[in-house]
Write a structure and sequence with these properties.
By secondary structure, the protein is an alpha/beta fold. The chain has a single domain, classed as Vaccinia Virus protein VP39 (Rossmann fold, 3-Layer(aba) Sandwich), CATH 3.40.50. It contains 7 helices and 7 strands; from the N terminus they run ααβαβαββαβααββ. A hairpin with a 2-residue loop joins β6 and β7. α1 packs parallel to α4. The longest helix has 13 residues.
Length: about 200
């Protein structure tokens, strides 16, 4: 899907994603002292807004202008301010060493496109900063529920860890279960979760 397709999707639905933060982002970021955060492929800003509510200087970046407009509006309704940017991550260059937390949630691209984005995200971390990535895992295709049905855009923990391992210390790289409520009952999705840090 290109930016126009995502614009249409965000325009046609009140909220494409949940209003609250991603479960794994919350688990891996909730214990951190507030600082500067960068949410790449932020969509409607659910993670960025949640961080802003916790005192973070929070930036949300997405290539859908409709999603970013919604993120601004939601933040305003919730009484917080976030910095927003409309940008294609394929060419986006975040400021190196500027952020205490960098989040990438469900950015599903082929490996050749994803790897340079991951490396630029790693370079954006300040000393002691944390990197959190969650995405649909390759194993979800056959063993899990939902998500993209094209193997080339699914990730593995090893793939992500190898992309950033030269720059960051990997604290966690594993497949995690995410429970999804559906009309047919609870289903289990399988996600890649990678948490890393830049050494102080």
């Amino acid at each position: 899907m290109d930016a126009g397709d995502w614009d249409d999707r965000y325009r046609d639905t009140e909220l494409v994603w949940s209003a609250g933060p991603n479960l794994f982002v919350e688990q891996q970021s909730g214990d951190l002292p507030a600082g500067r955060s960068l949410d790449l492929a932020a969509g409607e800003g659910r993670n960025a807004i949640w961080l802003a509510e916790r005192g973070w200087d929070s930036t949300a970046v997405d290539y859908s202008s409709v999603a970013i407009d919604k993120a601004r509006q939601i933040a305003e309704r919730r009484g917080v301010t976030i910095t927003t940017e409309v940008a294609d991550l394929g060419g986006y260059l975040p400021t190196q060493g500027a952020y205490d937390l960098v989040i990438i949630a469900y950015l599903q691209l082929v490996e050749a496109e994803l790897t340079p984005i991951l490396r630029r995200a790693a370079a954006a971390l300040a000393s002691g900063g944390r990197f959190v990535l969650v995405s649909h895992d390759l194993s979800n295709l056959d063993q899990g529920y939902g998500g993209p049905q094209e193997a080339s855009v699914l990730t593995t923990p090893n793939q992500v860890a190898e992309a950033i391992g030269g720059a960051l210390t990997i604290d966690l790289a594993e497949v995690v279960e995410r429970h999804v409520q559906t009309d047919g009952g609870q289903k289990t999705a399988l996600d890649t979760l990678v948490v890393a840090r830049r050494s102080a």
